[in-house]
Structure formats: structure tokens, C-alpha cells
Amino acid sequence: MWRLPGSRAALRGVRTAVERHTRAEAAAAATEAAAGAMERAVVRCVPSEPKLSLSFALADGSHKNMQRDQSEPLGRALSRIATNALKGHAKAAAAKKSRKNRPNASGGVACAGPGPGPEPAAACEPVVKLYYREEAVAEDVLNVDAWQDGAVLQIGDVKYKVERNPPAFTELQLPRYIMAGFPVCPKLSLEFGDPASSLFRWYKEAKPGAAEPEGGGPSSLSPSSPSPSWTETGVNERVYTPSNADIGLRLKLHCTPGNGQRLGPSRELESVCPVEAGPGTCTFDHRHLYTKKVTDNSLIRTVSYNLLADTYAQTEFSRSVLYPYCAPYALELDYRQNLIQKELTGYNADLICLQEVDRNVFTDSLVPALEAFGLEGVFRIKQHEGLATFYRKAKFTLLSQHDISFHEALESDPLHKELLEKLVVYPSAQERVLQRSSVLQVSVLQSTKDSSKRICVANTHLYWHPKGGYIRLIQMAVALAHIRHVSCDLYPGIPVIFCGDFNSTPSTGMYHFVVNGSIPEDHEDWASNGEEERCNMSLSHFFKLKSACGEPAYTNYVGGFHGCLDYIFIDLNALEVEQVIPLPSHEEVTTHQALPSVSHPSDHIALVCDLKWK
Questions:
Q1: Which InterPro entries match (predicted)?
Q2: Which of 79-88, 174-183, 419-428 shows the lowest per-residue confidence on average (mean pLDDT)?
């Protein structure tokens, strides 16, 4: 068996006692400890990192988190544990003595007995041992091999069951703004586990302003015995949708990570603010009546939506000029995220292509919400915001990604050599085109039910300026050439779904180019920004595309403009439209004058349709 090294007199008696124990007695002690209730010692040890971490609670109540080299002999780690235990004991004794000598209410000093007595003997470092399979682990065994799952750590009289790499939450967070009727989707990240195998239990305050648990921070709450100020909601799922009865109450989530075989240490967190009242009927509520269920495997429910990036919504120009009719609180991200999450999850989509997505909105809001409803996503940054594509994991797996930046591809990819040669003739136009930061997101998905079915999903947000028609034409030419390379050269014959905010109405050259397959060199859009930037050229592509949702009167409705700018273009050779989910009525859109509003989170309207394989 291992024992503490050194020759300090204070440890001699302990060593003598330890040496009297036989191997059988030690094994019996370990077995007895394993059979009974034991504390937990959590070890995290992964090959890619030089150190392992060890976490446990000492008898004095303090919690220890240690980092030790994986290649270090076990004896050194156990010696450090013994030192920490001794320090913890000393602190506890000092605190007890301080309480004992504290003046009492009558001005005297509190005493433990009738008179002075001998000072207690100085504490010795406790015996620290590690057992595995009822055998004491030798001190020269390296940490990486010594700390095995199921081992037993003994610190004095306390025994701990070692759990190596149990499921654990590395991140856990509730949204700051919570509204009645809107799903609350916690942001969480796990190591050695998965959300589907984890346990969740939701609580709400028994009454507004109830006292917080002592300590004010996360604590270990037993689901069977909640704190007196909290009551169970009866919801044991990852997502909780508060009701009107929850308004004014804070929420608490108790969650235990799992991986299908075992559970890890539980964690608990409380909402910062109480549940707020919702805005009433939203523009998308009626649309959700058409999308109550996920479609069967023959259909692909597709959504395209410009979310209105927070980086654009939260400016003085937006508040005073672009959207002066919108209540300021309805432009705040925390408020809008509730509406966006509810709208998107309510569509039960298989594919969702989003534009104007802030990076933090993708990671902190969209991923947690949509993952909880069975979707997985990828993100492509532009400058201040970017594109996101989500797909239903039960229907699709991601085979590959082929994202590009338009200006980089045009300059460096031989695929666009002919187009660049045409553009070079017009230096002013070329300079403007190459200054734009627009990107194209391309994802190749494969059906989980039929591996022969693959699809190329493209997503973009073209240049926005009203006079940038010729720039959008060239961006679209680059996009279609790249999509052809992916769908014909890399994955021959796979169909295409091309979603986005194209910033082009049906009367523009860009739309004409996409649906007709060509654009003549004398089209008026080649001079969209005046004669100085005119760049006449003819373009063509070989796809047979059409707008799945037709040509609505508008998909963007703000105070000074309304028009159709968003489309879901589909490959007519392989796909057909099963149904188009109706857009909100004009009355719904204009209830609060224009978009965005308290009942609609963006200045755009989502396009939603069910597509069918031919």
C-alpha cells in the first residue's frame, strides 16, 4: 500500500498504524466504502492535454480543484491532497476558535467549558490512499494510469468514488429576457455527454421576490427536495415554455449531464429576471397552424429568413430614421431573440437558411434553440454578421461545405477567369465589385434514409445598395458558377436549393438572370450606378431555376420601402413545390405600421415552403 513519504515526528504514529493494516483489511475497507454511499471525486483526463484535473469536496466543506501532470507519479498527487486536507482542517479549526472567542450578547466571551483546558494537539496530515479493484495503488504509478474510473480515494476517514471523464456541462446559461408563451432554450455545452441523454427539471418561484438560496450561487439541488422558495413546474424536458401564470416569477433549471450509460455532476441555475408578459398575437402565429408537425421523408420544409442583425438594429440611425415607428425595447436583441426562436422552432423546418446573423446570436441563441428541436447548424461570417444554415439531423447529415467570398473567388479561382476578363475592361466597376464583402454559403447534405439522395443547399445575402444592380449580377454569376462546380463536378447530378436575401425585386436584371438563364449585355442594370460604372456583358448559366414561393408583393416592409427581395430558388429538374406557407396578411404586417415591431422581430418576412423530390 502507498503511504506518505517523509520522516516528520508528527506522522510517525500514523505511519505505524497504517503499516499494521494488512492488504486484506485495506481491500475490505475499500470494498465496504464502495458498497456504501461515497463522496464523488471527478477526474478529467484527456490524451491531448498534459495535465489532468481532480475535483472533490473536503470534510470541512471546501471544494478542491487540482491540476496535476499526467506523467507525475501518484505519490506526489496524494501528498498534495494530504497537504490541502491539513490546510482545510486548520482553517476550520481557526474559524471554530474565532466563533468560540467572539463576545456574547452580555459583553463576555463565549466559552466551551467551565474553565481553561489544554490546547488541542496540532493536527497531522491525514492518511491519503487510492484503491483500484480492492488493491492499493502503488505510489510510483503515473497519474494517467492511477486515476481509473471506479477507483476509491481515501482521505482520512472519508472515501470518494473516482469518476473519470463523467458527462459534464462546460457551459450552461439561461437567456436574460424570458416571456410567457415563448420557449426558454438554455445554452449548454457538454463534454463526454449529449443533451438527449441528460436530465432536466424546471422550477419556478413559489412567490415573487422569494429569498434566494444561501450563498446566492449555483448549488446542488436535489430534484426530490427543492428549496422552499421554489416549486416544480412538472416539466422535465430541455425546453420550457412559461405560461401567463409564471409572469413575475423567476425560473430555475436543475440539470444532470448524461451519455446514455451514466450521469455526471448536476448543476443548477436561475434566471436573472422574472418572466415577462408576451406581446400577444405575433405575425407568425397563424403561419404555425400550417407547420404543426415535421414533414415526412418525401418532403423538405425549407425556410429563408433575413433576421435583421443586431449590429444594424441597435444604432441611433435605425431607431430614429429606419425604424422610428418601432418601440425601442422591441429592437433590443434580448426581446427579438424570443420572437425569432419561437418563430423558427414553430415552422418545424428541415432546412433553414438565415441571413444577417450575428455570431453571438448564432452561438448563444439559435444553436441552443434549434438544437433542442432537432436541428444542427453551420455559420459563415461576412464582416459584422454572416449566414447560417440549419438542417434536421433526423433527415440529413452534412457531407461537406464549400463557402466562398465573392471578391476572393472572382480574383483567385480559375473557375471565374472568363468573368474576370470581362470585368477588367471596366476598371471603375471592377474596383467596386472587389470592395464588396458578400459571401456564399454552400452545404452538401445527404439523406439519412436514402444515401443516394444528396442536395446542394446554397445561402447568400447579396450587396444591398439600390444602385448596385450590376454588382449583384456579377455576384450571382460567381455564385451560380461555384454552385455548378459543387453540384456537377464534385457531386454530379445533385439538385440545388438556393436561398437568400438577393436585394432584388422581380423586375431586376438579377432575377431575370436567375429564372431565364441569361442576361443580355444591353440590360439597363449594367448601368445601375451611372455611365461611369457601366459594364456591359452578357451572362448565362445552365440551371433551370424558379422561385418556389413565387413573387410575393413584398418580403421586406419598412417605413420607406416595401418589395420582394427574398427567394427560395429550386432546381426544377429534381424538385417541385408541395405547398407554400402563406405570408402574414397585410393587416398583420401593418398592425404596428411597419416592420420590425413588437410582434415581428425583423424587417423581412420568412419564406416557408414544402419541397418534394421528383
A1: CCR4/nocturin_mRNA_transcr, Endo/exonu/phosph_ase_sf, Endo/exonuclease/phosphatase, PDE12-like_N
A2: 79-88
Q: Distance of alpha carbon 397 from its chain centroid, rounded?
A: 19
CB neighbours of residue 488 within 10 Å: 15
Residues in Cβ contact with 110 at an 8 Å cutoff, skipping those fewer than 6 apart: 99, 100, 101, 102, 103, 104
Q: Which of 93, 82, 84 is nearest to 15 (CA)?
A: 82
Q: How many residues does the chain have?
A: 614
Asked whether the beta carbons of 457 and 445 are under 8 A apart, the reply is yes
Q: Over the Cα atoms of the chain, what is R_g?
A: 32
Q: Which residues are catalytic?
A: 501
Residue 268 pairs in a beta bridge with 254
Between CA 247 and CA 278 the distance in angstroms is 9
Q: What residues have CB less than 8 Å from 298, skipping those under 6 apart?
A: 612, 613
Closest CA to 202 of 179, 236, 245: 236
Q: Got the DSSP string for 495-557?
A: -EEEEEE----TTSHHHHHHHHSEE-TT-GGGGTT-GGG-----EE----EEETT---S-SEE
Between CA 178 and CA 342 the distance in angstroms is: 12
Cα(251)–Cα(206) distance, integer angstroms: 10
Single-letter amino acid, residue 236: N
Among 110-119, 182-191, 561-570, which stretch is predicted with the lowest mean pLDDT? 110-119
Task: Tell me the C-alpha distance between 563 and 566, whole Å.
Answer: 9
Cis peptide before 596 (omega within 30 of 0): yes
Which residues are CB-contacts of 373 (< 8 A; sequence separation ≥ 6)? 239, 345, 348
Q: Where are the beta strands (DSSP E) in 358-477?
A: 375-381, 386-392, 396-401, 404-405, 439-447, 454-461
**How many beta carbons lie within 10 A of that of residue 123, not counting itself?**
14
What's the sign of the alpha-carbon dihedral 134, 136, 138, 141?
Answer: positive
State pLDDT tens for residues 19-69. Answer: 333 333 333 333 333 434 789 999 999 999 999 999 999 888 889 999 999
Fill in the amino acid letter for 444: V
Instruction: Select from 354, 360, 208 the least CA-distant residue to 276.
Output: 208
> How far is Cα 556 from Cα 561, in angstroms, rounded to an integer?
8
Q: Is the pTM of the predicted complex or chain greater than 0.85?
A: no
Contact (Cβ atoms closer than 8 angstroms) between residue 398 and residue 375: no
Compute how many other C-beta atoms are within 10 angstroms of the C-beta atom of residue 562. 18
CB atoms closer than 10 angstroms to residue 20: 8
| Residue indicated by cell numbers 425560473 | 251
Residue 344 CA to residue 350 CA, distance in Å, equals 11
Question: 205, 226 in Cβ contact below 8 A?
Answer: no
All three cell numbers of 436: 464588396
- The span from the CA of 385 to the CA of 364, in Å, is 14
If residue 144 lies in a helix (H) or strand (E), which one and from where to where? helix 143-146
